[in-house]
Amino acid sequence: MAQVSVVVNGRSFRLACRDGEEPRVQELAGEIDSLISKLKGNAKATQDDRLFLMAALVLADQLSDAQAELQRARQLVDGRAYHVIEGGAQAMQRDLSRALEAAAARVEPLPRISNGS
């Protein structure tokens, strides 16, 4: 089991993760730190636990929207009868591509943070 240190909202945290996952954990922590910075804005005295809760709620909302969009895409694909002889494979690929693009558009991307390394 590996150990990784991350900084979120100016506080350092030491976390355990699987070997090799350290860069991903640091990347995700950077995204959360960026989101918290946006939520905090110019406020200097916002409690950490409130900021972490607000960030968790924003991320949970985005995840819920993405899951709902994925479910709609699955229903669209499952509900259609495609016939390869009549070009159904191309139609299925087009419909799936449109559904995935719609799902991706609904999820607000988090800004990427460069840690200066």
Could you explain the architecture of this structure?
Homodimer. Interacts with FtsZ. One of its GO terms (cellular component) is cell division site. It is found in: Cytoplasm. It is a single chain. The chain has 117 residues and is mainly alpha-helical. It has one domain (2-106). 59% of the residues lie in helices and 12% in strands. The protein is built from three helices and two strands. The chain has helices at residues 22-40, 48-78, 88-106; strands spanning 2-8, 11-17. Strands 1-2 form a two-stranded antiparallel ribbon. A hairpin with a 2-residue loop joins strand 1 and strand 2 (11-17). It starts with a strand and ends in an 11-residue tail after the last helix. The model has no long low-confidence stretch (mean pLDDT 82).
Instruction: State the end-to-end CA separation.
Output: 24 Å
Multimer state = single chain
Q: Kindly name the structural category.
A: mainly alpha
Biggest sheet descriptor: 2 strands, antiparallel
Question: What's the total number of strands?
Answer: 2
Total of DSSP H or I helical runs spanning 4+ residues: 3
Radius of gyration: 20 Å
Q: How many discrete domains?
A: 1
The percentage of residues in β strands lies in 5-15%
Keywords: Cell cycle, Cell division, Cytoplasm, Septation
Pfam families: ZapA (PF05164)
GO cellular component, one term: cell division site
Protein name: Cell division protein ZapA
Please give the structural blueprint.
Blueprint: E1 2-8, E2 11-17, H1 22-40, H2 48-78, H3 88-106
Antiparallel strand pairs: 1-2
Helix pairs in contact: 1-2, 2-3
